[in-house]
What does this fold into?
Amino acid sequence: MITVGVLAIQGAVAEHVAALNKIENVKGIEVKTLEEIEQIDGLILPGGESTAMGKILNYFQMLEPLAEKIKQGLPVWGTCAGMILLAKEIVGQDTTYFKAMDMIVKRNAYGSQLDSFQTTIELPEIAATPIPLIFIRAPYVESVTGDVTILAKVADKIVAAVQDNMLVTAFHPELTDDLSFHKYFCKKVSASKQVS
Amino acid sequence: MENRYELNKNLAQMLKGGVIMDVTNAEQAKIAEAAGAVAVMALERVPADIRKEGGVARMSDPKMIREIQETVSIPVMAKVRIGHFVEAQILEAISVDYIDESEVLTPADDVNHINKDEFKIPFVCGARNLGEALRRIGEGASMIRTKGEAGTGNVVEAVRHMRTMLNDMRRVQAASAMELMTIAKEYGAPYDLIKYVHEHGKLPVVNFAAGGIATPADAALMMQLGVDGVFVGSGIFKSGDPVKRAKAIVEATTFYNDHVKLAKISEDLGEAMVGIEIDTLAPTELLASRGW
It folds into this structure.
């Protein structure tokens, strides 16, 4: 049994928790304090507004302790805004958050809400069947360095990647019925728990 | 096009747990974003001023909205008059992220609301009860908010509207299947949406609080009542210290259940906006009664 927390500062929290609780031997819970984060085996940074989440993490002095937890190996998955929080660099702005993953991300990279879209992708290493991808005012990864592995590209843009204990997706698996990415992340969390 | 409505509902899901702030210029939009707002609502006058100055309240100047779009990275919403589908076409043309078909502006159609299904752009609409919410969703709204009584700094109407909606939903959920058509008739709501509420016990879209929220405690009150997030209109920029108050309301919306944090958040915020007792308003002054 593993416990995966969803950072409940703001955004699509309940959707992630519901998806996690559909997976066997996984308990999904909302977490919003450092004490709660101590109790979990893995953390999801949900979609929402990265500026709003960043501000609140900052107001309550949670940015640095969380960045440290991630550095120490807490498995973490950032979807959309969560991906922005993990990036070492953000195009066009000086403010960064956890500065954890070796990538440059571009916010609102596709445009306004009118440019939000849905597509599907085949990723044999994650799922046997095509996976639906939902992009909402989405970012993408402009470039990666270091030992980041690119998991998925859509129209030549990087939209999913992993590095050590970190997974990022520019899209929102929690908004679909497809559990492939949640299962993939939970496998990472289980593996990490067994090692430690 | 067929999944556009889903994508529009999805954007509202991303705003959950957040605060959407009324702003009248780029400078205020910057303050809102810096405080941690999840979106801004661009409008010419905040409801408190509309109430005071009177006259016809209309969609804002697209140039002002564009300036705000260029200034902030968070979603930008803007209001159109009830039934004014051309104002909506204009806002769609400048790619705002969400349109609020709002009773705060002077209605352009005293019978019909905009057929929101015709638009690619998402709409949020106000409601006082379940029937009104489901009529708007039936027309294509992808997000609902309570109407409250905008520009009063008095939360009582938002509370009433939220409690009414919750009571209505409990009744629908508890009813037997054969009672649903009569309830649909009574509420003036589409039958399929009444069935949805019966099965799921909630609205098919995100539901925010709006109208009269002036303090962090007001925001937390609405969150504890079960809304997904809050709109704050006049409450911020009509207060003594907008920067402090905006930040405090954002914090309170996240930590709405943490009483110790709420106490600290509520400290030393300067003056709240002056409130209006709803009973002192003439029936014609009630904005919430606009909408059909």
About this structure: The two ends of chain B are 28 Å apart (CA to CA). Chain B has a mean pLDDT of 96. The longest helix of chain B spans residues 156-174. The longest strand of chain B covers residues 76-81.
